[in-house]
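Posted in: Protein Modeling Q&A

I'm a second-year student putting together a small comparison for a lab meeting, and my supervisor asked me to include a predicted structure for LacI family transcriptional regulator. I've never done this before, so apologies if this is the wrong subforum. The sequence is pasted below exactly as I got it from our records. If anyone can share the structure token output, I'd also love a short note on what stands out.
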Amino acid sequence: MVIGRNVVGDRTSTDRHDGSSDVHEESATGGLAGLSGRAPDGGGTGAGDRAGLTRSGPPDGRAAAGSGPGGGTAEAARADGVPGGGRAPGRDGRLASHDGGGRRRAARGAGRGARTRTARNPRGVVTLDDVARLAGVSLATASRVLGPASARRVGSELRERVEKAARQLGYTPNLVARTLAHGASDLVGLVVPGLAEPYFAALADGVLRAAERDGLAVLVGAGRGDPEREIAHLATLRAQRARAIVLAGVDAVAVPVASGLRAELERYQAIGGRVACVARELPAADPGAGPLGDLPVDLVVPDDRGGASRLAQALAALGHRRFAVLAGPPELPQVRERVAGFTAGLIGAGLPAPRVLHAACDRDGGRAAAERLLAEGTDATCLFAVSDAMALGALDTLRARGVPVPDALSLAGFGDHAGSPDLTTVRPPAEGMGERALDLALRPAPAAEPYRGRVVAVPGEVVVRGSVRRIG
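Accepted answer (user: helix_wrangler)
Welcome! Here is the predicted structure, written out as tokens:
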């Protein structure tokens, strides 16, 4: 899945992706019997997180085009030779051994085939020269097919010959030598709080998809609840000269910890590295007031306003005309965005603005808000809770008061948590956010002074389930 690449040049603007077909209907297998009585998983990390840095990359091991920390574009030609010593095939068909002083000694190879020469190489290193000879093409052509310049146009017949020769010889680019030679790495980094939570696992999958598309390998670091560990992962990625870093969970970072993150990111940017952050919400009305301050990094957030608006339109299309909203504290940006989006969606459908009740943005808050609504009386046919946790709390109250859902009152939430299988909701675009974040980090915006970073909002998906009934 590729998310659109139109971006904005200043952090004061937000790129929102409109989606006219983001409504997905799922059939309920057991009505509301499947709605869990447990509180939704509020996140956090667990023993399933991977320790340290985990490397993943495309199966063919090819590198991608682009520049990285240290400058320059990585070229495959000769970058995979043996620096400082060892034996590598010379262009005249003989094995050349380079010692530390740069002297070259030649020994006549046994036989003319690249396979024979490689077999006689004590190190067993298959180089791009070997592939070019076996394929009967120039070194430059082999480099364009297999190296970072693979996006350049090469005829299909030549490409097939080179790729066949590479497979036959078992050729793999020497990424370490290439990085040493050109200062550019074929690695990108992802640092997340943990991988046990489905949200971050999906986000990581999006980063992996984007990296695979560009022929890059990914180093994944999980903080597992320890901010200092996340900072250490960033330092490791800087030492590895990773081409770009995606940092997730920045909206949950405390200010004292953020200063350490900011310092490490500044050191990474000083060597040419590029950074994109992923947050579950805009940190503040002014993004520069967020945990990382005015650090010039790109920011990817979910389009909560757009998702709530599309949910309102979907509910209106099912015949509902009167609504009540169970909202969290109004000072929370996430709450404001969802309430504003839902209200705008109803008004756009020609319906009146809903009644809004504020409470804590958790299961207990949902119970309290629903109690108050029932005590004061309501003619609403559908309740919208700004989080799945609040929706499940409201369900607890409705069940206790003998109000059947959805026959007497429909119910919708936001978040698509695992503990709410039959709840109509908005699914966060975690995978799309991961993809989009890496795209931004790898493809910088046109130069601007001062550069404040781009903010991109990625749309979620409306999922209609058994907690909402059709009226009329």
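A couple of things worth pointing out for your meeting: The chain is about 35% helix and 15% strand. Residues 198-213 form the longest helix (16 residues).
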